[in-house]
TrEMBL record:
InterPro entries: ELO_CS, ELO_fam. One of its GO terms (biological process) is fatty acid elongation, saturated fatty acid. Belongs to the ELO family. This is Elongation of fatty acids protein. Pfam families: ELO (PF01151). GO terms for cellular component: endoplasmic reticulum membrane. GO terms for molecular function: fatty acid elongase activity. PANTHER family: ELONGATION OF FATTY ACIDS PROTEIN 1-RELATED, FATTY ACID ACYL TRANSFERASE-RELATED. It is a multi-pass membrane protein. Its main location: membrane. It comes from Penicillium brevicompactum. It is an enzyme of class 2 (transferase).
Amino acid sequence: MASEILKHVSTPTLDRPFGVHLWPLFDMGFEKVMGYPASEFTFAQNVTPLSTLKETTMMLITYYVLIFGGREVMKKLPAFKLNTLFMIHNLVLTLVSGILLVLFIEQLLPTLVRHGVFYTICDQRGGWTQPLIILYYLNYLNKYVEFIDTIFLVLKKKPLTFLHTYHHGATALLCYTQLIGVTAVQWVPITINLLVHVVMYWYYFQSARGVRIWWKKYITMLQILQFVIDVGFIYFASYTYFTSAYFPWLPNMGKCAGEEFAAMAGIGIISSYLVLFISFYIATYNKAAKSGRPRRNTGQKSLVEMRNFEIPPTTPANGSVNGSANGSATGRSNGPVTRSRKA
């Protein structure tokens, strides 16, 4: 295997941006698993596994029945730890996302440089080539593997948030609609999402190992940036498609590959992600900041409390208080002295 890899190593070029021609290696691995090379793969609706609306719907129904039914069952059972399995799951998803990402980059970079962005997102010869189709399909299948994230939450008796459960189901549906809708622009949200998933699943893997990660907040920020970019590309592709088809008198760049239902699904789902993730960020991070809750180990709270405490009166040796000859005082001279809390 090492010798086969070395055959494909060379100086990085536009066609081999990583210095290794990755596609022949992927093709060889694909053939060992499937029995035929990746170059012979074709996506055919109603023929390829999970290529029908019925199959996709059944998978989504099964997902929601399992997680919400499982949550009810787990109310009567103790939580499972499953830390080792959780680490393996997140490491596998990190590696799968990384491998798909570099394969996408190898396929897309030459086209982007030689033909430009519009050609790559709106022309089927740019964003709907045979190698990209198989990568789209594998990414789609991977969305069902990611359902296991929620199974772990159920078994560990962690809360199921609307954002989490909606996002997983809607993403599988989104990938399905773009596959059968032949949208060339789909590589934009897919590649950015793969980058986010490399970072996110690596974070979960390290956290399961007990490593303290300080940049969790920035994962959410990266996700929001992802959806902002996605919305820009999808809205542009949809705009130029609909205007060229129905309102040619409006400014447009011409036809853009894809079916209308796929464009509407992309607009609706990606827009909802942007709204939900911004809302999540505000609720999670801005709320904590506005509450005035101090950061850990700063001692800020203790210092504020100390500022408000009165200094106890001092009792001299002659029994007077605060220098008063008659021994009168505002506090008890022989009682306990109030002490400030340790900072």
